[in-house]
Predict the 3D structure of the following.
Amino acid sequence: EPEVTQTPSHQVTQMGQEVILRCVPISNHLYFYWYRQILGQKVEFLVSFYNNEISEKSEIFDDQFSVERPDGSNFTLKIRSTKLEDSAMYFCATSRWGGETQYFGPGTRLLVL
Amino acid sequence: GQQLNQSPQSMFIQEGEDVSMNCTSSSIFNTWLWYKQDPGEGPVLLIALYKAGELTSNGRLTAQFGITRKDSFLNISASIPSDVGIYFCAGQLGQAGTALIFGKGTTLSVSS
């Protein structure tokens, strides 16, 4: 069964550093999403992406965040200058169409020191 | 922002018991989804509901999309130890590519 994959599984970084989290969507899926989950809390939406542009974003997704699909396969989330409060699990999700079921990857655990 | 109220927050049950959890909202949702999350892993889809009143089963799991489109429940029958985990409801307000709004989760513990 096709799966969403994410790399790295864990990332430790210093405050102020840039990080790039990578996701490989399910092959015939057209909509891509990033969510985050702070330890012990609920999953929160960050951004959705379709046809090479952002279709929706939350207030969490500020100027420090950006997304792109650089090579037609990977879907990336970049955090330009990490803060302590960016420490969380970051999940990529994809769906075949908008409004269809979103399938989640295993997540990247980001720790900002 | 939009809120989903999920209850109960946690449950401690004996193996073999049935479990019920639910989510409510003041907003109308087009889609309700139920996910299970094991520690350190991503949410895994259990059941997706697309129509008001829809009742869907997946093995021992049954979920319903409320008639008012503001609520959903998930039942697990004859629980087993591997049912342990955190169960999240998630709703989608719009259609194309819209965000999932998650509940805070129900932590299920099953003792054998």
About this structure: Chain A touches chain B at residues 4, 31, 33, 35, 41-45, 48, 50, 55-56, 58-59, 91, 93, 95, 97-99, 101-107, 109 (CB under 8 Å).
